[in-house]
Write a structure and sequence with these properties.
The complex is a heterodimer of chains A (366) and B (131).
Chain A: H1 8-13, E1 17-21, E2 24-29, H2 33-42, E3 44-48, E4 53-58, H3 62-69, E5 82-88, E6 94-104, E7 107-112, H4 117-128, E8 134-137, E9 143-148, H5 152-157, E10 172-177, E11 180-185, E12 194-199, H6 204-215, E13 220-223, H7 225-234, H8 269-278, E14 282-289, E15 300-303, E16 306-317, E17 322-330, E18 339-344, E19 347-354
Parallel strand pairs in A: 3-13
Antiparallel strand pairs in A: 1-2, 3-9, 4-7, 4-8, 5-6, 6-7, 9-12, 10-11, 11-12, 14-17, 14-19, 15-16, 15-18, 16-17, 18-19
Chain B: E1 9-10, E2 15-20, E3 23-28, H1 30-36, E4 39-43, E5 50-51, E6 56-62, E7 66-70, E8 75-80, H2 90-93, E9 102-106, H3 118-130
Antiparallel strand pairs in B: 1-2, 2-3, 3-9, 4-6, 5-8, 6-7, 8-9
Classes of the chains: A alpha+beta (366), B alpha+beta (131).
């Protein structure tokens, strides 16, 4: 039996195409991946991401536990600040990537991937044993929506008196949205400005519908998982399970900026330090296909006639109008500009490594 | 509601066929293009390639997915719609016209009798949707 988010009825009622994603019945598209993707880049899009897991760590020493479990430096966070980070195992492999919300020193909210939620919860519980800390899986306590795109602030501002321009990137606030108390954070997975909005599941329909109505004149579209994947790929955000997993380290995944060995002890620190000392043997690169044939997840990558890797994520990029992808490449073939082939149904198609992100938004003042 | 021209023949894999003497033009149906969404790439065979009926002969790709396309009839490819390389969206805009894919020299024109009529194909789509 697939799980449904509190917004399931809303999706079905407007004709969304629903699919199984990590055990959840989720909307993959409404009007189509291309119009939805373009709405996020040029206007705004609204995603239901209630399938994401929430884990809360509460009590004296919460900060120390999060510090021990994650690679980034939690001590740098102030109340209401948010941080992208990784949970790593002793080998430095990525158990999951996540957002860490410091509500206060004794209260942290972790937002994790739906597919890893149970595993993460068990891992964190195990490491909290012997402490007085409360570790709670509160995934059912939240609906989560992502309002993304250059017009997001204007749309959301229409439903709240809270001055949203005072919430900087990667900060959050408790905000009343059309009378519903929500935690609103300036975060997202699309490469655009925007907000992620946590609310009581019983109020989710109200907030969703009010956002869609308010956003209509701004060109807001409801967006599904297809557009979520293509927008995140253009922005080169890694997807756990595709672009990293427990056998790859954050350093190999190009996430060295979230690894802070200087902060003190954490699980995976030694392995990551020694990998850094010895140097990487492979790393995640971005590439462009120099052909009209898209490279898809899992397609073989050929260097000098031999399979050297597989595409970790690959898709047509609707805004860039190119076929792009990511793959782990041996260091000697990882420099920007290096050519290789992608095997597309038996045909070797040329590709070239490029800088990531593929897409970077311009600072706009509209 | 999908458009299903009376004068064409159809397959359960959602291809259409327009037979003229010993040649047949092949494409994908309006229903199929709607299900796929915006087509971004079409991969077609080369002139002279030979296929048995029901054999895959290429693929149609949307942003999200790759769908194989199957030969409705046995024969040799004598024309390929090269324009789809630059304008794959023709498959969405005009599936029975500019969105055509290949012309076949038929090996056995009587195979056409085994294909679905427009009415049969419409019934089949309805059945599929109710499953």
């Amino acid at each position: 039996m697939l799980k449904r988010t509190p917004l399931y009825e809303a999706h079905v009622s407007i004709g969304a195409r629903m699919v199984d994603f990590a055990g959840w019945e989720m909307p993959v598209q409404y009007s189509g991946p291309i119009p939805e993707h373009m709405a996020v880049r040029e206007a705004a899009g609204l995603f239901d991401v209630s399938h994401m897991g929430e884990i809360e760590i509460v009590g004296a020493g919460a900060l120390d536990l999060v510090q021990k479990l994650t690679t980034n430096d939690v001590a740098k966070l102030e109340d209401n600040q948010v941080q992208y980070s990784a949970l790593t195992n002793t080998g430095g492999g990525v158990i999951d990537d996540l957002l860490v919300y410091r509500i206060n020193e004794e209260y942290f909210l972790l937002v994790v991937n739906a597919s890893n939620s149970d595993k993460d919860f068990a891992w964190i519980r195990e490491h909290a044993e012997g402490t007085e800390l409360g570790v709670h899986d509160t995934s059912h306590g939240y609906a989560l929506m992502a309002l993304q795109g250059p017009r997001s602030e204007r749309i959301l501002q229409g439903l709240t008196d809270h001055m949203l321009d005072r919430i900087p990137y990667y900060w959050s606030q408790q905000v009343s949205v059309d009378g519903v108390s929500c935690r609103v954070s300036r975060t997202g997975y699309t490469g655009e400005d925007g907000f992620e909005i946590f609310c009581n599941p019983e109020k989710a329909m109200h907030v969703w519908n009010r956002l869609l109505v308010t956003g209509q004149e701004f060109g807001l579209l409801p967006c599904g998982l297809a557009a979520r994947n293509t927008t995140r790929l253009e922005a080169a955000y890694r997807l756990w399970g595709n672009d990293m997993d427990e056998t790859t380290t954050p350093l190999e995944a190009g996430l060295g900026w979230v690894v802070k060995p200087g902060k003190g002890e954490f699980i995976g620190r030694e392995a990551l330090q020694s990998q850094k000392r010895e140097g990487l043997r492979r790393k995640l690169v971005g590439f462009e296909v120099l052909d009209r044939a898209p490279a898809r997840d899992g397609y073989p990558i050929i260097v000098n006639g031999v399979e050297a890797s597989r595409v970790s994520s690959g898709s047509p990029a609707p805004y860039l109008k190119k076929n792009i992808g990511m793959a782990y490449m041996p260091m000697e073939h990882s420099a920007v500009g290096t050519g290789f082939s992608v095997l597309v149904r038996g045909r070797e198609v040329p590709a070239r490594t490029v800088e990531m992100p593929f897409y970077k938004r311009e600072k706009r003042f509209d | 509601m999908a458009n299903t021209p009376e004068e064409l023949s159809y397959t359960k894999d959602h291809e259409w066929v327009r037979v003229k003497g010993e040649q047949a033009t092949v494409g994908i149906t309006d229903h199929a293009q709607k299900e796929l969404g915006d087509v971004v790439y079409v991969e077609l065979p080369k002139m002279g390639d030979k296929f048995e009926s029901a054999e895959p002969f290429g693929s149609v790709e949307s942003v999200k997915a790759v769908s194989e396309i199957y030969m409705p009839l046995s024969g040799t490819v004598v024309e390929v719609n090269g324009a789809l390389n630059d304008t794959p969206e023709k498959v969405n805009e005009d599936p029975y016209g500019e969105g055509w894919m290949v012309v076949l020299q038929l090996e056995n024109p009587s195979q056409v009798d085994a294909l679905l009529t427009a009415a049969e194909y419409e019934d089949y789509i309805k059945e599929e949707a109710s499953e």
